[in-house]
Amino acid sequence: MLVADLRKVINEYNNDEKDKIIVELYKRIPKNIKEDYDIDKYIMTLDNKKCKEEKKLSIDELEKEVNYFIECAKRGLYASPNKIISKKERSQWRFKARKYYKDLNNFVPGTPNGNRATNLLIKLFEILSYGTNYLTFSNWETFRAIQVSQTIFLENIIRRILVNGHTKENIAICVELLKVKYDPYGYYKEVLYSFENCMETPEMKYTAIELLKEQVIIQTEKVKELEKAKKNSYSASEYVDYFVECIVELYFYLNEVDEGIKYFHKNSLEKHKEVKEYILLELLEEFKFYEEWIIEYEKHIGKIDYRPGLREKYNIFKKNN
Predict the structure, then answer these.
(1) CA atoms within 13 A on the CB side of 319
(2) How many C-alpha atoms does 196 have within 13 Å on its Cβ side?
(3) Residue 178 CA to chain centroid, in angstroms?
(4) Phi/psi zone of residue 149: left (φ > 0), alpha (ψ -120 to 50 degrees), beta?
């Protein structure tokens, strides 16, 4: 039934009948849908006369509220029963977080209050990212809950930071943001793309490469230490490979393909030769460097047992080039 048809039908009913329909429909709305779309608030505030205009919080008030919210989240008070955060408030944490995101973005970046707002957005981004991997709130899909993806949130923060200048110090802050927990309900490459999209000039890309290389060294050493202590090094290894891919892609954007390939071979921690080569060839294909793809593939013929999919691609690319 179209909306126009619906209007014609309900126009035939009196108010008591319409009330009955509304109540019955409300009963049939799943709880998660009511929460996601804040149906209760919509019903209660439809008449603006009944709704008091929400007070616009100052940056001081927001800073106090956001810091308290994050502190409670770190203590697990939004994830399990306690006497500080009520059950209702725990289930409605998303509305707070979503409002904080919106309110903080109202402060113009680059201004004193705007910079304070950006720092609070960073804290909020970090706790939401943490919450995608460790139970911190009443549900795991934290970014979906606030209806802002991890990638959009990240790019928004980075662009706010860079309003203050494309300095090494500011880009370093952006690089640090890549060390959060990645949303398992998303795709890690999207996070890297958000970062790369903000590195708009060659100078910014070179600075980002330099800073990411420092992180690769730090995380690689961490992997070695963890392995030596016979501890789980998966997370540190993951960061190394993410940062290596990001560096390679920045080199590719700069059209320094050979430099990117060389860096990948030297620094990727992938131990399986065929998988390692597959990742590199996928990156070359993504940037449409087909000639370099063929050269890279042919270097390892007889040394690597390529999967059928790569062999098929080689025949196609070879024929077309």
Answers:
(1) 6
(2) 19
(3) 9
(4) beta
List residues bridging with 301 in a β-sheet: 304
Closest CA to 179 of 142, 145, 148, 154: 154
Q: How many whole angstroms from its chain centre is CA 146?
A: 12
Between CA 10 and CA 41 the distance in angstroms is: 23
Question: Would you state the structure tokens that stand for residue 294, as one six-digit string?
Answer: 């063929």
Nearest to 245 by CA among 288, 299, 294, 209: 209
DSSP string, 86-123: -HHHHHTHHHHHHHHHHHHTTSPTTSHHHHHHHHHHHH
**pLDDT tens profile 117-171:** 999 999 999 999 999 999 999 999 999 999 999 999 999 999 999 999 999 999 9
Amino acid at 233: S
Residue type, 280: L
Nearest to 121 by CA among 82, 173, 187: 173
Report the amino acid identity of residue 244. Answer: V
With vertex at residue 286, the alpha carbon angle to CA 186 and CA 196, rounded to the nearest 5 degrees, is: 60
Query: By C-alpha distance, which of 107, 112, 122 is closest to 66?
Result: 122
- Nearest one of 219, 149, 207, 226 to 179, comparing CA atoms: 219
Residues 231-267: tens digit of each pLDDT: 999 999 999 999 999 999 999 999 999 999 999 999 9
